[in-house]
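Subject: two folds for Thursday's group meeting

Dear M.,

Sorry for the delay on this. The cluster queue was jammed most of the week, so I only got both jobs back this morning. I'm pasting them in the order they finished. Each block is the input sequence followed by the predicted structure tokens. Could you check whether the formatting survives your parser before we put anything on slides? The first protein is the one we discussed after the seminar.
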Amino acid sequence: MKNYLSLLFFFLIFLNVSAQQKELTLEDAVMQQYGKLYPKHISGFQWIPGTNSYVYVENGTTLKMGDVDSKKKGREFSIEEIGESLGAELKRFSPLTWKNSNSFYFEAEKQYYLYDSDKKTGSIISKVDDSAENPTLQTDTGIIAYTVGNNIYIQKPNGEIIAVTDNDDKNIVSGQAIARSEMGITNGIFWSPKGNLLAFYQKDETYVADYPLLNIIPTPGELVSIKYPMAGQKSERPKVGIYNLDTKKTVFISPTGNLDDYLTNLSWTPDEKNVVIAEVNRDQNHIKLGLFDASTGNFVRTILEEKNPKWAEPEHPAYFYSDSSEDFIWMSEKDGFMNLYLCNTKKGFVRQLTKNKWVANEILGNDTKGKEIYFSGTGESPLDTKLYAVTISNGKQTCLTETSGTHNASISSDGKYIFDQYSNHDTPNVAQLLNNKGKVLTTFVEADNPIAEYKLGTTTIGKLKSHDGFDLYTRLIKPSDFDPNKKYPVLVYVYGGPHAQLITNSWNDGAALWMKWMAEQGYLVFTLDNRGSANRGFAFESVIHRQLGTEELKDQLVGVDYLKSLPYVDANRLAIHGWSFGGFMTVSMMLRDPRVFTTGVAGGPVTDWKYYEVMYGERYMDTPQQNPEGYEAASLLDKTQNLTGKLLTIHGSIDPVVVMQHDLSLIKSFVDNGKQMDFFIYPMHEHNVRGKDRLHLMTKVLNYVIENNK
């Protein structure tokens, strides 16, 4: 009997060890990071307007509703149940938009439905054209605005369709994001609060150069032209249109300065009488926040101005937090960090509400009395994201989510309750309800580690110093069988550009799972967020001005020196990989410091900033005419003779962001200099390789590193 129990004991231990030794495949690492290997989480959480009730979606097919104040069991609605009541075959819930505390809108295959959760009845309100894009619903009226081609339409619940614009000239584009989605622009249609007026962006691309992309699907292939304004060349000319649903007339607002200045960050005043628009000059160093009459389009006044010799970039619209059409919150980094300011449409800046030496990310809402503003920000650690409240009357600030980590939070309309979903280095995911004192009321999810059974190594977050004293955060991933007495090759993964942060205090520390797979192949995988990257304040980010690739490379070399100082690093086997700005950094490192890395893989790389778009490129580099020395120093086309290692560049054949001219010009320079390199195209992919082909991409990238970093 004892022998039997002993055998059983050792057998169970063997099973446990075996379970922990499961190997992560590259296919699962690439294709399942946000599937079966993603921690359990709450999707689609919303506070129901005007209540302390909430709703979220489970598995995409079950709607769960609850109430913080009620002890009754919450309600559930299956997609099949709702579909049956609507006479529709529905598969998954799309995001909900609430009309009131009982009824919500949702969309399925271009059909819009309104469902009453109390009566358990609903109806279809509209079916928009199959070619409709950018649909934007007005919740009070159920009217939908959308674009078809370059024009904008509205469709009423009675089926009436009205053409808001009717431009035959394809150069005049209405209702879409403009300025290539820079400066916080994400959409181009803006309903007024009560739905009486519709504002929209319009751009005139007549003078913007055409850029050819090759569509290989038809026989023969055909050229498709896109509009692409390169740095220093002619740009689009913006307007804001305001359509009156009663009069069926449109007025237009143009920049008060030059015709190619920027109009961005549009918001409505609560009384619908005015719109507030941030106008930015072409040089992007002067913001004028203007008030415009919505009935005439006339300029009323400049509310406030900001100037900076490097750049001034508005990223958030004016936030009106009460029924007042004069008082609003403006977000600005004019003191060196993104902070909140109380402003008035007549008085301009009133006072600074927050005075943090860290970055506020975005305003999330306010209480119903208009006394507190809720916003997210990093707090003292730039790796965190937390929820904060600030009292408007006295600037008193409170952190509502104290646990260190990356929090995705929302607050009930009366400010009493918080939904908080967070992760950190040690926590896969927690989703819970709190009161505004931080007490946990309900825990929805406390996720298990979905990769616990896999054979994976450790991740360490560290800090180094730049030459001018800034902290540089690092991430180092080691294999599960790491031996400090061995020498390991290293893959450095880099991005390094503005508006991006690779290292965060979140689950997996911001790393992709393919990095952990790569570590299991006997590698160390290292990342450093250099100066110029996000969430560190203006001084940290703006050192790149007029010299992209210079200070960033210095910081990456600080990381290289650190790696070489480690006794377990093989300093002769360093490789580097990055995409987009990271592709630019990869090629830069291979050509400007050619003996550091044996191997580089650059995806979608910028190779000369004169080929990049006006909006992004001129903010950081000015124009080629204004800054010829900076453009020459950053260009990689005159440095190909320096290549000593193995370099692979990769490009999507119809990339509309970093156009193919970058890579082809680089290759021509390599040919001219008699230098061999490797190049791979992903046909009919844009700037990123997505879908099932993502596995092909990462297999190619990592195999190239493994085969050549010797």
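Second protein, same layout:
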Amino acid sequence: MALAGCGEPRSGARAPDPPATAAPRAAASAPAESAAGDDAPRRGQPAAPQSRADRRPDLADDPAIDLVDNRFLWHLYRGGALVIPAASEGFRKYDADYASAWGDVVDLDGHAGRALTQRRAQLTFPHAGGAARLRIRLHGVAAGQRLTVTLNGTRLPSRSPAAAWHTETWDVPAGVLERGENALRIELARKGRAGATAAYALVHSIDVAPPGAPDADWPPVSPARRAAVAGDTRRSLSGFDAMALYVEIPDRAWLTFATGAGDSAPFAIRATTADGDRVDLWRADAPAGWAAHAVSLAPVAGQLVRLELSAPAEAAWGEPRIQLEAAPVRPRPPAVRNAILVVVDALRADRLALYGTTRVDTPRITAEGRARGVTFLYNQAASPSSPPSHGSIQTGMIPRVHGVVGDRAQLKPGTPMISTALGAAGVATGYFGNNAFGMARLEKPGRWTEFHQPTREGKSNDCVPLIDMILAFAKRRAAAGERFFVSSLPYETHVPYRYHPGITDRYFPGPWPPPIGKQVTGELLGRITSGALRMTDTMWDQLKALYDGEVTYMDGCFGQLVDGLASAGLADDTAILLTSDHGDGMYEHGHMGHAFGHYAELANVPLVVFAPGLTDEGIAVRTVTSHIDIAPTVLDLMGVPIPEEVQGESLLPIALRRGPWTPRVMPLEYGRSYALRAARWKYIVDYQGRESVFDLKRDPTEQRDLAGDSPVALRYFRDLAGFFRAHRTRWRMREHGALNNHRAGFLRLVGADPLRP
């Protein structure tokens, strides 16, 4: 049996079959949703004419998923063997160490290999289970070295690698490899030098092959190439008889490609969903030469799948792309004159009716959002703590890039911020907020015309006087003929949760006895978390009513801001962005408050954009977004250049397209812990390195860990986590793409050829 593919977990979820060594023979005719022509479509050129029955809809050129640009996300198979390409950037998918044990790729004696710079390294990879043959192609670097390999805790016989390129082979008996994810540990004693590089070894590639597989030629380490067929050269995927990509399929998407072969050859496409369903999407005997095809992905729309392409290794998949059906795009509105960013401290998205059913009344936010707001339903906090999150909101960067990684850290000198970019453009900038812990450290690095913390100026922390201060600033600047930007931080939904007469009583009728009373403090939350205070159902009702009452009270202040801008004649010139720095836990995962993890109650924060000309009605966007997208969006709205250091992207293109967008996976981090959020799925790695996977469609509060039950989802996130850990400090989405959708700029970053002129 061929040994490849992502296998069945221990708990019994169905896993994908291993890929065949060649595509199965099939009837020459394609299914109705496939359109074939004589010539492959080139980017920017229409496809060859198609019959009416097979005609595809018009497809958008952008956004799209270019499968050649995403070459490093493919899992590669030759003769049933999974090829782990150490000498390629695709190796990142398998590197399981938080701090990688691997260095750069080194060319030595006619081959390339990645330097093992630490004594031990851990890799993970998918497999179908059963007996196998393990092959490691490597170059030793010192006399007397011992190589120890461990598979899933089983140690294989040690070897003495030669100081030359060679292949070490082990026959792995049945029972060692599991159907699903597997762990490979490599250990080498004695460090040496590979040319100018200090290392324990150079590794070219690792194969996990069927048992008894004969020695094979050294494989290529990338499927991307310029393939020439009948004198016509195209960007292609080739060199492997099966390739598998873990990918989220957008709604209304098509897979467009050209089959390329010297003679008629079998090609096939199938998908395995995260739920374990297998779907044959297309198969055909493609004619000699290039032939264009467009395959509807409707059977797996909106799902996370393992997408497998099968064809003879010498055949080619030319210009393969996942494209969206064309959709209306609203004209880009003129730059707004002013912008106000409202960051409500500790506001959970699930307390707003724009995000789903809730008992909490927010009539002003709801009405404005449904009339003219763009609501980003899957917005994520960059961090569960105020200082890192505010750093990300103000800079468009993840915490370890802007520098505020924890409660005491400071912004790195010279880091651009919204206020520095706008201030340099002549915009008056003001900050008005009551969380000194979150924002005070950003006063000096910023470029603020005015910076006010009312509680430090002898004023209350109530949002009503705070909004009065904001409106006064706006009127002064407008009267002076200046553009303005305000960043504000109302404190209502942060502890202490206060009682508001006539509001809080909507959620709990009373009485309000201690220990909860009419105000919840941080000290009280600590007692609940520690178990020192045993909560009754009535006490929980009191506490949650106080939080929910704060949300409703804050809604009144939002209305105060909207009405104040209108009465001042500024509403038509001013954008408002409503968000939060993080949520607040209500013991869903054994903690109260925040700064304890990346769970939904902390990570899911609102982002609603109100901007003149952006929309004529309220719209909801189901694309994953993050705090790091806020700074570039503000700057783009105001027509000010976005600093190249910014890692997020402006959300205006997504907001203006009246149709689906290509999926985005966005990172969250806090110290060593991090998370990756997809539309339906989420992956969390805690401080101890423990992984969790959640299906947010079935489990929106993240109570059931599926890391052992969904091999497709786990492998998807492990693939992306490898790239995140390796490149998170250098990643720029505008140039490099998303973690799950690489652009040509990422290829240039890692020294790969984009295969473009």
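Two things I noticed about the second structure. The longest helix spans residues 537-567. The longest strand covers residues 179-188.

Cheers,
T.
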